[in-house]
Design a protein that fits this description.
The structure holds 2 protein chains of 2 kinds.
Chain A: H1 2-12, H2 35-49, H3 66-75
Helix pairs in contact in A: 1-2
Chain B: H1 3-28, H2 33-41, H3 60-73, H4 75-94, H5 98-110, E1 114-117, E2 135-137, E3 140-151, E4 158-164, E5 174-180, E6 184-190, E7 202-212, H6 221-262, H7 269-298, H8 302-305, H9 308-336, H10 338-341, H11 350-358, H12 365-376
Parallel strand pairs in B: 1-4
Antiparallel strand pairs in B: 2-3, 3-7, 4-5, 6-7
Helix pairs in contact in B: 1-2, 1-3, 3-4, 3-6, 4-6, 6-7, 6-9, 7-9, 9-11, 9-12
The chains are: A mainly alpha, B alpha+beta.
């Protein structure tokens, strides 16, 4: 799951730093994730993991770090290592 | 000061100071200094600051009502008041450093006027992107910004300036820096000579400021923007436009009533047009009241404030209010006919119409639609 999240961030996050340099708990907004890009990240995550984020999870906090994204996906029963 | 007294004081200033000066402010495109001084003297510049910090502890709805009252007499004064209060709201809700706490007390005690520099040359109008950066040097900051617009910069006691957090921060990692007038050099780059809102003096500047690092707002601008600046801006701007519509409707109503008095027993032809305008006006009023109440109810719910339905709803307020103001003022003009078209006389609506057209252009509705279009891609049914 980690690798897929990082790939999606690299493809759609338009971050200012290489994704490989980011710690799992690094603040993605501080790393340059803007609001339009975060929508694209969300859509790509939904497509890749075949899930739909419910309205209650569509908050800035859900996408603020790789750890937060993993926790959100876990809540949607996406199993990963 | 209780809610009634606050509104009465705003109404008095609107009637006795802002209204009489409004034509001169408009004609000369000058700052409404006498109105702002009256607001300062009455303590209204610190209205949103809690009582324990020296302010009046007013609610946003109360400040919105004051803004609306001012706008019916002088839209430029109301817009300056609104823009100032937006900065005060950011300061009160996000200024959690010792330096900013002291500054907040100064704003209340001295009635400091706050301006804002968010747009920057070279970012294409995207205020969530900065080129300039906060340069830290010991416990001081320095920042230089090329700003296409800083409204009433030369009259303000401080300019709230957005910039990248540090020299190596990405363009979206922004903070607000409070640049006090005494520590700031402004070089005027362009003049504000516009169709309406001529008293806001929205010139362009090169801003060079220094100051203690304690005057950097600690919360990221992204959070300040979504939790406070955007919703408060939309509520207070909408209140300015609603006040403009109120002023135009007031003239239309007086026109029809004068007609009715001159021929008792005969319904004046314009009376039906006034009734039609009143329907749109009522829709406008209820929408602004509804959106203001919605924000006040959610103010402390950070998660909800960043939710898509809330953001889309506040953006919708901006688009609707800025469209409805032109509709209502145009209808009022239809009611008063040639008397409204004239530049002189008690029913003249030329300035109202010119001011009204600015609403859809200041933060262009096209940009707001584009933002909502993006957000709606991620919208979900509750």
């Amino acid at each position: 799951m980690d690798e897929a999240i990082r790939r999606i961030l690299a493809d759609h996050g338009r971050l200012a730093v290489p994704v490989a340099d980011l710690a799992d708990d690094a603040d993605l907004y501080r790393a340059g994730l803007a609001s339009h890009a975060s929508v694209n990240v969300m859509l790509a995550l939904e497509d890749h993991f075949d899930v739909e984020f419910p309205e209650g999870m569509l908050r800035k906090q859900t996408f603020e770090s790789i750890v937060a994204i993993k926790a959100a996906l876990a809540q949607l029963d996406v199993v990963g290592s | 000061m209780d809610s009634d007294e606050l509104l009465k004081e705003a109404a008095r200033i609107a009637r006795e100071v802002a209204g009489p000066a409004s034509s001169d402010v408009d004609e000369r495109s000058r700052f409404p200094a006498e109105s702002v001084e009256a607001l300062r003297h009455a303590g209204l510049l610190g209205a949103l600051i809690p009582g324990e910090l020296g302010g009046l502890g007013a609610s946003l709805a109360e400040v919105a009502a004051c803004t609306e009252t001012l706008a019916a007499h002088c839209a430029s004064t109301a817009m300056v008041f609104a823009m100032h209060q937006i900065q005060v709201a950011c300061l009160v809700r996000h200024g959690h450093t010792d330096g900013l706490g002291q500054f907040t007390r100064d704003v209340a005690r001295l009635g400091l006027l706050l301006a804002s520099a968010t747009t920057e040359m070279g970012v294409g109008g995207d205020v969530r992107t900065s080129i300039c950066a906060v340069e830290a040097d010991g416990d001081e900051f320095a920042v230089t910004k090329m700003a296409p617009v800083i409204s009433y910069a030369e009259e303000a006691d401080a300019v709230f300036t957005t910039a990248r957090r540090a020299a190596d921060s990405p363009s979206s990692d922004q903070v607000i820096v409070v640049c006090r007038a005494a520590d700031t050099k402004l070089e005027r780059l362009s003049e504000w000579n516009a169709l309406g809102f001529r008293g806001t003096c929205s010139n362009g500047y090169r801003l060079d400021a220094r100051g203690p690092l304690g005057l950097v707002v600690p919360d990221p601008y992204a959070a300040v923007s979504s939790e406070t600046m955007l919703p408060v801006s939309h509520v207070l701007w909408a209140s300015v436009w609603l006040g403009l519509a109120n002023g135009a409707m007031d003239r239309a109503r007086r026109y029809v009533q004068a007609e009715a008095r001159s021929k008792p027993g005969v319904l004046p032809p314009a009376a039906t047009r006034l009734a039609e305008a009143a329907v749109v006006h009522a829709q406008f009023k209820d929408m602004v009241a509804g959106a203001t109440a919605r924000y006040e109810a959610l103010m402390d719910d950070r998660g909800e404030l960043s939710s898509i339905p809330f953001v889309v709803g506040m953006n919708a307020l901006k688009v609707s209010a800025s469209t409805l103001v032109v509709d209502v003022v145009s209808r009022a003009m239809g009611v008063c006919g040639i008397s409204a078209y004239r530049q002189d006389g008690e029913y003249s609506l030329g300035r109202y119409l010119r001011d009204a057209y600015g609403a859809a252009l200041m933060v262009n509705n096209e940009r707001i639609h584009a933002n909502n279009a993006h957000l709606l891609l991620a919208d979900r049914r509750r």
